[in-house]
Every structure is written in C-alpha cells, then in structure tokens.
From TrEMBL:
A GO CC term attached to the entry: mitochondrion
The family this protein is said to belong to: Belongs to the class-III pyridoxal-phosphate-dependent aminotransferase family.
Protein name as annotated: Alanine--glyoxylate aminotransferase 22, mitochondrial
Transferase is among the record's keywords: yes
PANTHER family noted in UniProt: ALANINE-GLYOXYLATE AMINOTRANSFERASE-LIKE PROTEIN (PTHR45688:SF16), PTHR45688
Signal sequence residues: none
One MF annotation (Gene Ontology) recorded for this entry: pyridoxal phosphate binding
Native source species: Sesamum alatum
C-alpha cells in the first residue's frame, strides 16, 4: 500500500457485530453487503478509509462514485463546519449568500443558455425534476431512456431505470427503453447509427411521434453512440429534449449540448446535493405553480458544493482523473491479456468497469468469481465496487485524488487475487 501519513483517532464506538445486529433489526432489509463479514468504516482521509481497528484500505469505490475530492477533504470540511456554525438552514424563502454563490459558480461552468440551476437533495430528485420539466415544456409524456441505465428510485426515475433488479412492480408509465449502445454486449456492437435508429423507431412505432425527451447516463452513451455520431443524429432528427445525467459534465464528450443536465454524487463530495441545470426558457415551466424543496440548496450543502468546485479546479482533479484513469485502463488491459476471465475493460477517466466472464466467446457472467475477487481484494486492503445487470462488473470509481501508485497497488492486488481463483 502506498505510504500515507495519517493516523485516525482511536475508535471507541460499538463493534462491527453490534452494528450489524442493529442494522438487521432496525434498518432496510433490502440493503446488501458486499463482503461476508461487513466492514465497519469509521474514518476516512482522501483516498483512504479506516476500519474500527485503524486498518487502512485503499478506497477505489468512493462511496459509489461520490467522494470526488477525497474523504474529509480539509477545505470541504472547513466550508461545512464554518457554514454550520453560522446558519444551517433558513429555507429558500429567505436570501442567503451560499446558494447564490454556488449557483453562479456552477452556471459559469456550462455552455450556452444552460444558466438556471435548481438544487435538490439527491440524484433521484434531480432526475425526477428534469423529467417533469421536459414533460411540461414539450406537452408530451413519453420519454426515451437507454436499457441498463439507473436514474433513481422514485416514480418517474424508476420508470426510466432499465434494470429489473431496481424496478418494483408498481405503476411506471411513459418510458420506452432503447437498446444500450454497449460495444461489448450491445446487439449492434459499435454501430452507433443503428442504436440511434432504434430510438427513432421507438418514437415512430411506440409513441404519438412526439416525445418529451431522451435521458441517458453520460457514461452509457460514451460508447457506440458517441463514436459514430449517434447523438447528433438523434437530436437532429427528433427535436427531443436531451437530458444527460452527468457526474461532472459527461455530456461534453458527446459534441452536443443537452437541454437539461442533472448531477449529484461528486458535486457534494458526500454531502446530499443534487442539481438540475437548464435554460431560462425551460425553467419557466415551473413558474406557473409553486416548486419548492425544503432542503434543496440549503446553506450547508451549497457551501460544500462551492468548496468542492474550487478544490476540483485548484487541485486540477479533472486532469488527474484523465491521466491516472488512462494509466489505470492501460494496466487493467494488461491484466485482460493475462487472464481469460476479464472480458472487457471500459470507462472514462476514473469511472472504470471491468467485466468478468467465465467464457469469452459466450460472455457468460462470472458472478461468483467477481464476488470472490472483491472479497480477497478487501482482505488485502483494496475496496472496489460491483455492478452491471448480472453483478459481474467491477466498478472502480475512486476519489479523483487517486495516484498512479494507488493504481499500481490496486492492479497488483487484483493480479495476485486473479492468479489464485
Ligand atoms: C446515474 C445515476 N443516476 C441517478 C442516481 C440516483 O441518485 P441518488 O441515489 O442520489 O438518488 C444514481 C445513484 O446511484 C446514479 O448512479
């Protein structure tokens, strides 16, 4: 493990077993644990986490792609503490500098007319709001979403989500799911225009011909659609509102400017914060009623958001994500040459997936092996995540301060673990 000069304070709280018992008794029974013996994480510093015994782990999951600047980044913590000491909450009904400053700073990062910001508490809320605005603005209800996407767990977002494991059997209306432009498993391979035509066909055959919009996780569409100019085709031919869920302006890679952008997770570095950015014209659709969110844009969250934005710029974290991400993909691709079980390595920057298969030809998901590798890597001090429809894709989404030394440690541990399974 790369050296790191930090020792967390001693932990005096309840044991992991005690917490697990309470969790099983009092909390959501649907929550899964990745590991046989769930980890009790009690401290964090930048790209490292510490358990109750002070053992250090390299965090390559970032609280599900959320800890962008690093755990407990001092400047973000200072912003939260300072704002909490002055005023935690007043509601949007009163003026406060934190929300105004952050809205201005965020808007300055967007091109064209994308200048109006709505704050929410989560990604789900941001996507719900975006979908509602698209529907109100266009007067159409139908939405196109891409298969395999996840957009949240409320009514409209669960409908837009396209993975059965995240969909409950309740009424979900108005969403048509287009083929996932996934170069590895997608039915059209990397033929972007075919995926775009699928969307076109859905609109022609499955709707009145008018739709409210097209929603996609920016990372989903970085594959075939983007390479073959599929997005340009979509916007040109269908006049749909384009909403791309971006973790940090993922849409910029596509060569199109969406009408609505939603974001959450990394913009707060762990503080509950989501946002929708759109044009003044589209934003106006909410002015005919009251749209109100008690906590959305509260002073503490927006002070944190502004600090995150500043840290990302000051520490050139996007550049770091690009450089270290390239190195990570290079090293993972070398592992792919070495181990048949790695079927695919994909992603952008420090948002990387590694898909395990038991048969490269058939692409049979290697679910058991995925869990086993994660478990062994955890034992060796590296935390990675898991996802995908079949639960056979490692999710590597570390804080953006991740270094090449961290990559070396992660990949060496993965290499060793794969050699043992
Ligand atoms: C792409 C995407 N959209 C939406 C969401 C929902 O965000 P939240 O869990 O903050 O409601 C998530 C969360 O994992 C996500 O990854």
């Amino acid at each position: 493990m790369p050296p790191f000069d930090y020792t967390p304070p001693p932990y005096t709280g309840p044991s992991a077993d005690e917490i697990l018992r309470k969790r099983q008794q009092f909390l959501n029974p649907a929550v899964l644990h990745f590991f046989k013996k769930p980890l009790n994480l009690v401290d964090g510093k930048m790209q490292y986490l510490f358990d109750e015994n002070g053992r250090r782990y390299l965090d390559a999951f970032g609280g599900i792609a959320t800890v962008s600047c690093g755990h407990c980044h001092p400047e973000v913590v200072d912003a939260i503490v300072n704002q909490s000491k002055r005023l935690q909450h007043s509601t949007i009904l009163y003026l406060n500098p934190a929300i105004a400053e952050f809205a201005e700073a965020l808007a300055s990062k967007f091109p064209g007319d994308l200048k109006v910001v709505f704050f929410t508490n989560s990604g789900t809320e941001a996507n719900e709001l975006a979908l509602m605005m698209a529907r109100l603005y266009t007067g159409s209800h139908d939405v196109i979403s891409i298969r395999n996407g996840y957009h949240g767990n409320a009514a409209a977002t669960m409908a837009a989500t396209a993975q059965s494991g995240y969909k409950f059997n309740v009424v979900q209306t108005g969403v048509h799911h287009a083929q996932n432009p996934d170069q590895y498993r997608g039915i059209f391979g990397s033929d972007g225009p075919k995926y775009a035509r699928d969307v076109d066909d859905i609109i022609t055959y499955g709707t009145s011909g008018q739709v409210a919009g097209f929603i996609s996780e920016a990372i989903q569409s970085t594959t075939a659609l983007e390479r073959q100019g599929g997005f340009a085709l979509l916007t040109r031919s269908n006049q749909v509102l384009l909403a791309l869920a971006a973790i940090f302006w993922g849409f910029e890679a596509h060569g199109v400017v969406p009408d609505i952008v939603t974001m959450a997770k990394g913009i707060g570095n762990g503080i509950p914060l989501g946002a929708v950015v759109t044009t003044p014209e589209i934003a106006k659709v909410l002015a005919c009623r009251n749209y109100y969110n008690t906590y959305g844009g509260n002073p503490v969250c927006t002070a944190a958001g502004l600090a995150v934005l500043k840290v990302i710029e000051k520490e050139k974290l996007q550049q770091n994500a690009f450089n270290v991400g390239l190195y990570l993909k290079q090293r993972l691709n070398s592992l792919k040459d070495k181990y048949e079980v790695i079927g695919d390595v994909r992603g952008r920057g420090l948002l990387v997936g590694v898909e395990l298969v038991t048969d490269r030809q058939l692409k049979t998901p290697a679910k058991v092996e995925t869990l086993r590798v994660m478990e062994h890597m955890k034992e060796m001090g590296v935390l990675i995540g898991k996802g995908g429809l079949f639960g056979n894709v490692f999710r590597i989404t570390p804080p953006l301060c991740f270094t090449k030394e961290d990559v070396d440690f992660l990949v060496d541990v993965m290499d060793y673990t794969l050699s043992k399974i």
